Amino acid sequence: MEQFVDPIREELESFAVGDIVELFTVDATRIGGAQYLFAPTSVQAPDGSFVAPTFGGNTYMVIPFESQGWDFAAGGTLPQPTIRFMMAREDGDGLTVASYLLSLLSSLDDMLGAKVLRVQTLRKFLDDGEEPNPQAHMGIEVYTIARKSNQTPDFVEFQLQSALDMEDVVLPRRQVLNYCQWAYRRALDNGSFDYADVTCPYVGGSYFNANGEAVADPKLDRCGRRLSDCKLRFGENAELPYGGFPGAGKLRSS
Protein backbone atom coordinates (compact mmCIF):
# COMPACT_ATOMS: atom_id res chain seq x y z
CA MET A 1 0.00 0.00 0.00
CA GLU A 2 1.38 3.39 -0.98
CA GLN A 3 2.21 5.73 1.89
CA PHE A 4 1.79 9.50 1.71
CA VAL A 5 4.18 11.16 4.13
CA ASP A 6 4.02 14.77 5.32
CA PRO A 7 7.19 16.72 6.27
CA ILE A 8 6.99 16.25 10.03
CA ARG A 9 6.26 12.52 9.78
CA GLU A 10 9.08 12.02 7.30
CA GLU A 11 11.50 13.88 9.56
CA LEU A 12 10.49 11.96 12.70
CA GLU A 13 10.97 8.63 10.93
CA SER A 14 14.47 9.56 9.76
CA PHE A 15 17.69 8.74 11.58
CA ALA A 16 18.59 12.41 12.08
CA VAL A 17 15.66 14.11 13.79
CA GLY A 18 16.33 17.78 14.46
CA ASP A 19 15.67 19.72 17.65
CA ILE A 20 12.06 19.55 18.84
CA VAL A 21 10.55 22.90 19.83
CA GLU A 22 7.56 23.23 22.16
CA LEU A 23 5.20 26.18 21.71
CA PHE A 24 2.29 27.09 23.95
CA THR A 25 -0.71 29.38 23.55
CA VAL A 26 -2.74 30.32 26.62
CA ASP A 27 -6.08 31.47 25.24
CA ALA A 28 -7.78 33.46 28.00
CA THR A 29 -10.27 35.28 25.76
CA ARG A 30 -13.27 33.48 27.24
CA ILE A 31 -12.33 34.61 30.78
CA GLY A 32 -11.70 38.25 29.89
CA GLY A 33 -8.07 38.08 28.80
CA ALA A 34 -6.20 37.72 25.53
CA GLN A 35 -4.01 35.12 23.85
CA TYR A 36 -0.55 34.75 25.40
CA LEU A 37 2.21 32.94 23.52
CA PHE A 38 4.98 31.25 25.51
CA ALA A 39 7.99 29.04 24.83
CA PRO A 40 10.14 27.41 27.53
CA THR A 41 13.44 28.14 25.76
CA SER A 42 14.88 30.39 23.10
CA VAL A 43 16.29 29.02 19.84
CA GLN A 44 19.61 29.66 18.15
CA ALA A 45 19.33 31.94 15.15
CA PRO A 46 21.43 31.47 11.98
CA ASP A 47 23.82 34.20 13.19
CA GLY A 48 24.47 32.31 16.42
CA SER A 49 22.39 34.53 18.70
CA PHE A 50 19.50 33.19 20.77
CA VAL A 51 16.04 34.51 19.96
CA ALA A 52 12.41 33.86 20.80
CA PRO A 53 10.91 31.26 18.44
CA THR A 54 8.59 32.50 15.69
CA PHE A 55 6.18 30.08 14.02
CA GLY A 56 3.44 30.87 11.54
CA GLY A 57 4.09 34.59 11.97
CA ASN A 58 3.66 34.44 15.76
CA THR A 59 6.52 35.14 18.19
CA TYR A 60 6.48 33.19 21.46
CA MET A 61 7.72 34.96 24.61
CA VAL A 62 10.47 33.01 26.32
CA ILE A 63 9.51 32.29 29.93
CA PRO A 64 11.26 29.25 31.40
CA PHE A 65 8.81 26.63 32.55
CA GLU A 66 8.68 22.90 33.13
CA SER A 67 5.86 20.61 32.10
CA GLN A 68 5.07 16.93 32.44
CA GLY A 69 2.26 14.41 32.13
CA TRP A 70 1.43 14.82 28.42
CA ASP A 71 1.43 11.13 27.48
CA PHE A 72 -1.82 9.86 25.99
CA ALA A 73 -2.92 6.59 27.58
CA ALA A 74 -4.96 4.00 25.71
CA GLY A 75 -7.21 3.47 28.74
CA GLY A 76 -7.95 4.91 32.17
CA THR A 77 -7.91 8.64 32.82
CA LEU A 78 -6.91 11.17 30.21
CA PRO A 79 -3.66 13.12 30.66
CA GLN A 80 -3.65 15.83 33.34
CA PRO A 81 -0.39 17.69 32.65
CA THR A 82 1.21 20.21 34.99
CA ILE A 83 3.02 23.37 33.92
CA ARG A 84 5.38 25.17 36.30
CA PHE A 85 6.29 28.73 35.24
CA MET A 86 9.52 30.06 36.71
CA MET A 87 9.61 33.65 37.96
CA ALA A 88 12.94 34.38 36.22
CA ARG A 89 13.47 34.67 32.49
CA GLU A 90 16.52 33.33 30.65
CA ASP A 91 18.09 36.79 30.49
CA GLY A 92 17.84 37.10 34.27
CA ASP A 93 15.01 39.64 34.21
CA GLY A 94 13.15 37.99 37.06
CA LEU A 95 11.27 41.07 38.24
CA THR A 96 9.67 41.72 34.86
CA VAL A 97 8.56 38.12 34.40
CA ALA A 98 7.26 37.82 37.96
CA SER A 99 5.27 41.05 37.59
CA TYR A 100 3.85 39.88 34.27
CA LEU A 101 2.72 36.50 35.60
CA LEU A 102 1.36 37.93 38.84
CA SER A 103 -0.64 40.55 36.96
CA LEU A 104 -2.27 37.83 34.85
CA LEU A 105 -3.09 35.76 37.93
CA SER A 106 -4.59 38.76 39.70
CA SER A 107 -6.67 40.08 36.82
CA LEU A 108 -7.86 36.71 35.49
CA ASP A 109 -8.75 34.81 38.69
CA ASP A 110 -5.66 32.58 38.57
CA MET A 111 -6.42 31.98 34.86
CA LEU A 112 -8.88 29.21 35.73
CA GLY A 113 -10.77 28.08 32.63
CA ALA A 114 -8.21 29.44 30.15
CA LYS A 115 -7.48 27.16 27.22
CA VAL A 116 -3.93 25.88 26.73
CA LEU A 117 -2.78 24.76 23.28
CA ARG A 118 0.48 22.85 22.94
CA VAL A 119 2.28 22.46 19.62
CA GLN A 120 5.49 20.56 18.94
CA THR A 121 7.49 21.13 15.79
CA LEU A 122 11.11 20.96 14.66
CA ARG A 123 13.58 23.84 14.66
CA LYS A 124 13.93 23.68 10.87
CA PHE A 125 10.21 24.42 10.39
CA LEU A 126 10.21 27.69 12.37
CA ASP A 127 9.90 30.91 10.39
CA ASP A 128 13.68 31.46 10.38
CA GLY A 129 14.50 27.78 9.92
CA GLU A 130 15.92 25.90 6.98
CA GLU A 131 12.46 24.83 5.77
CA PRO A 132 9.83 27.23 7.18
CA ASN A 133 6.46 25.49 7.27
CA PRO A 134 3.68 26.50 9.71
CA GLN A 135 1.74 23.33 8.82
CA ALA A 136 4.58 21.02 9.86
CA HIS A 137 3.83 20.15 13.47
CA MET A 138 2.76 17.16 15.54
CA GLY A 139 -0.81 18.28 16.06
CA ILE A 140 -2.44 20.72 18.47
CA GLU A 141 -3.15 19.42 21.96
CA VAL A 142 -6.00 21.25 23.71
CA TYR A 143 -6.31 21.53 27.49
CA THR A 144 -7.91 23.81 30.05
CA ILE A 145 -6.38 25.25 33.22
CA ALA A 146 -8.25 23.38 35.96
CA ARG A 147 -6.53 24.85 39.02
CA LYS A 148 -3.49 26.67 40.33
CA SER A 149 -1.82 23.82 42.21
CA ASN A 150 1.06 25.76 43.81
CA GLN A 151 2.60 29.23 44.00
CA THR A 152 5.85 30.36 45.64
CA PRO A 153 8.15 33.36 45.12
CA ASP A 154 10.07 31.19 42.63
CA PHE A 155 7.33 29.60 40.52
CA VAL A 156 3.62 29.19 39.87
CA GLU A 157 2.22 25.79 38.91
CA PHE A 158 -0.99 24.87 37.10
CA GLN A 159 -2.76 21.57 36.58
CA LEU A 160 -4.43 21.10 33.22
CA GLN A 161 -7.29 18.91 32.09
CA SER A 162 -8.17 17.61 28.67
CA ALA A 163 -11.19 19.17 27.02
CA LEU A 164 -12.80 15.72 27.37
CA ASP A 165 -11.99 15.38 31.05
CA MET A 166 -13.37 18.51 32.66
CA GLU A 167 -15.19 16.53 35.36
CA ASP A 168 -12.50 13.95 36.14
CA VAL A 169 -14.39 11.40 34.05
CA VAL A 170 -12.40 8.27 33.27
CA LEU A 171 -12.69 6.56 29.91
CA PRO A 172 -14.91 3.62 30.95
CA ARG A 173 -17.65 6.11 31.85
CA ARG A 174 -18.12 7.15 28.23
CA GLN A 175 -21.01 5.64 26.35
CA VAL A 176 -20.22 2.01 25.59
CA LEU A 177 -20.28 2.20 21.80
CA ASN A 178 -18.30 0.26 19.24
CA TYR A 179 -17.05 3.31 17.36
CA CYS A 180 -14.40 5.87 18.23
CA GLN A 181 -15.67 8.97 20.00
CA TRP A 182 -12.54 11.10 19.59
CA ALA A 183 -12.69 14.24 17.44
CA TYR A 184 -10.64 13.66 14.26
CA ARG A 185 -8.70 16.38 12.43
CA ARG A 186 -10.54 18.42 9.78
CA ALA A 187 -9.15 18.69 6.26
CA LEU A 188 -8.96 22.21 4.82
CA ASP A 189 -9.24 23.23 1.18
CA ASN A 190 -5.53 24.07 0.99
CA GLY A 191 -4.53 20.49 1.87
CA SER A 192 -3.57 21.23 5.48
CA PHE A 193 -5.51 20.25 8.61
CA ASP A 194 -7.35 22.07 11.38
CA TYR A 195 -6.39 20.58 14.75
CA ALA A 196 -8.39 22.97 16.96
CA ASP A 197 -10.29 21.01 19.65
CA VAL A 198 -9.12 17.73 18.10
CA THR A 199 -8.75 14.84 20.57
CA CYS A 200 -7.50 12.06 18.29
CA PRO A 201 -3.66 12.13 18.45
CA TYR A 202 -3.13 11.12 14.79
CA VAL A 203 -1.03 13.66 12.85
CA GLY A 204 0.42 11.35 10.19
CA GLY A 205 0.70 11.76 6.46
CA SER A 206 -1.15 8.61 5.40
CA TYR A 207 -4.69 9.44 4.30
CA PHE A 208 -7.77 7.19 4.22
CA ASN A 209 -11.40 7.82 3.42
CA ALA A 210 -14.32 6.81 5.63
CA ASN A 211 -14.35 3.35 4.02
CA GLY A 212 -10.74 2.68 5.02
CA GLU A 213 -9.36 3.08 1.50
CA ALA A 214 -5.99 4.81 0.98
CA VAL A 215 -6.28 8.16 -0.80
CA ALA A 216 -3.63 10.57 -2.05
CA ASP A 217 -5.63 13.77 -1.54
CA PRO A 218 -5.53 14.98 2.10
CA LYS A 219 -8.89 16.71 1.55
CA LEU A 220 -10.46 13.24 1.33
CA ASP A 221 -9.04 12.12 4.67
CA ARG A 222 -11.87 10.90 6.90
CA CYS A 223 -11.89 8.48 9.82
CA GLY A 224 -14.55 5.78 9.71
CA ARG A 225 -14.35 5.56 13.54
CA ARG A 226 -13.82 1.80 13.48
CA LEU A 227 -11.02 -0.11 15.19
CA SER A 228 -9.76 -1.04 11.72
CA ASP A 229 -9.42 2.67 10.86
CA CYS A 230 -7.28 3.16 13.97
CA LYS A 231 -5.02 0.27 12.93
CA LEU A 232 -4.58 1.75 9.45
CA ARG A 233 -3.21 4.95 10.93
CA PHE A 234 -1.21 3.72 13.92
CA GLY A 235 -0.25 0.19 12.88
CA GLU A 236 -1.70 -3.31 13.31
CA ASN A 237 0.36 -4.10 16.40
CA ALA A 238 0.66 -0.62 17.92
CA GLU A 239 -0.90 0.52 21.19
CA LEU A 240 -4.04 2.15 19.83
CA PRO A 241 -5.73 5.26 21.25
CA TYR A 242 -9.08 3.87 20.06
CA GLY A 243 -11.92 5.81 21.66
CA GLY A 244 -14.56 3.10 21.44
CA PHE A 245 -15.25 -0.28 22.98
CA PRO A 246 -14.63 -3.10 20.48
CA GLY A 247 -16.55 -5.62 22.58
CA ALA A 248 -19.69 -3.53 22.74
CA GLY A 249 -21.19 -5.19 19.68
CA LYS A 250 -20.97 -8.57 21.36
CA LEU A 251 -23.11 -7.51 24.32
CA ARG A 252 -26.67 -8.76 24.42
CA SER A 253 -29.37 -7.98 26.95
CA SER A 254 -30.84 -10.97 28.74
Could you describe the 3D structure shown?
The protein has 254 residues and is of the alpha+beta class. It has two domains: 15-166; 174-244, no CATH class. Helices cover 11% and strands 27% of the residues. It contains three helices and 16 strands. The protein has helices at residues 7-12, 94-107, 227-234; strands at residues 20-27, 35-39, 43-44, 50-51, 54-55, 58-59, 61-62, 65-68, 82-86, 115-122, 140-151, 155-162, 186-187, 193-194, 207-208, 214-215. Strand 15 and strand 16 (214-215) form a beta hairpin. The longest helix is centred in the middle third of the chain and has 14 residues, at 94-107. It starts with 6 loop residues before the first helix and ends in a 20-residue tail after the last helix.
Summarize the structure.
The protein is α+β, with helices and mostly antiparallel strands and 254 residues long. 11% of the residues lie in helices and 27% in strands. It contains 3 helices and 16 strands.
Element order: H for helix, E for strand: HEEEEEEEEEHEEEEEEEH
| N-to-C span | 44 Å
The number of E-state strands comes to 16
Major pleated sheet? 8 strands, mixed
Number of domains: 2
Beta-strand percent range: 25-35%
Tell me the helix content: 10-25%
User: Helix/strand/pairing class, anyone?
Assistant: alpha+beta
Number of helices: 3
- Our Rg estimate from Cα atoms comes to 20 Å
Mean pLDDT, all residues: 78
Strand order of the largest sheet: 7-2-1-10-11-12-9-8
- The coarse overall form would be globular
Detail the poorly predicted runs: 1-5, 167-177, 247-254
